[in-house]
Amino acid sequence: MTAITALTAQNTVGVFGVVETPPEFLRTQIRCVLDDIGTDAFKSGMLGGADNIAVVAEEIAAYRTVPFVLDPVMIAKGGAALLHDNAVDALIGVLMPLATVITPNIPEAERLIGRRIVDERDMVEAGRQVCALGASAVLVKGGHLPGTILTDVLIADGVEEAFTAPRIETRHTHGTGCTLASAIATRLAQGRSLRDAVADARAYLRAAIESAPGYGAGAGPLNHGVAITEIARG
Ligand SMILES: Nc1ncnc2c1ncn2[C@@H]1O[C@H](COP(=O)(O)OP(=O)(O)O)[C@@H](O)[C@H]1O
Ligand SMILES: Cc1ncc(COP(=O)(O)O)c(N)n1
What we know:
Oligomer: single chain
CATH architecture: 3-Layer(aba) Sandwich
Pfam families: Phos_pyr_kin
Number of strands: 8
CATH superfamily: Ribokinase
Distance between the termini: 27 Å
Shape: globular
Order of helices and strands: EEHEHEHEHHEEEHH
Strand content: 15-25%
Structural class: alpha/beta
EC number: 2.7.1.49
Organism: Acetobacter nitrogenifigens DSM 23921 = NBRC 105050
Largest sheet: 3 strands, parallel
Enzyme class: transferase
Helix content: 25-40%
Bound molecules: adenosine-5'-diphosphate, (4-amino-2-methylpyrimidin-5-yl)methyl dihydrogen phosphate
Keywords: ATP-binding, Kinase, Nucleotide-binding, Transferase
CATH class: Alpha Beta
CATH topology: UDP-N-acetylmuramoyl-L-alanine:D-glutamate ligase
Radius of gyration: 17 Å
Strand order of the largest sheet: 3-4-5
């Protein structure tokens, strides 16, 4: 179930317009789904601004036993801003403390800690710093670093784990991070540990990239309908 935080006019080439949902309407959407159907996990993505961040935090705060995957979406692949710069403090201050895990990519982690990240050692250090800001766990995603091997670093309960895999040569990577965060939330909803949820989500993401339909002139969408049987456990 979805509560729409913003409308975007976008395709594989870029984001051409954004209309943010009025905060009280976002609140109504969230209440509609939670009061009626309920949820086994939360995942947030693009939030737009501090007002919508406050609404999400207020509405999910009562569900402390429900896992929450916070994908701190800030900038689209094409460069469009998806979070107001002045909303980063609200994201750190009011949403991060509620999250089971926060999943920044390299530019987002750099923005959270105010320092450049150029290699895996920096990713680990950045992850530790994000935890020091108040995150329970962090998955620093390495897709934006160069190289033929991609690494994501999970830090949870003070334990670090690096997940590595070869980069798939493709331009069809629209929403890779969004897909990963949603898949992690799905596995957490099914009761798996965070570590196993990340491993399974990475396997699903990989299969979804490998079978991407190839639409559009830019970064095309993934195949979210990839059959679960095609996924080898990561
Ligand atoms: N070309 C690729 N091949 C395989 N995995 C990829 C590729 N691009 C991204 N990924 C994986 O997708 C996930 C999200 O990618 P990343 O680019 O780091 O974040 P975002 O999509 O949020 O910008 C990470 O797990 C990363 O390792
Ligand atoms: C609504 C929305 N959320 C997130 C992204 C980031 O995805 P990407 O980094 O692939 O552009 C996006 N383009 N649009």
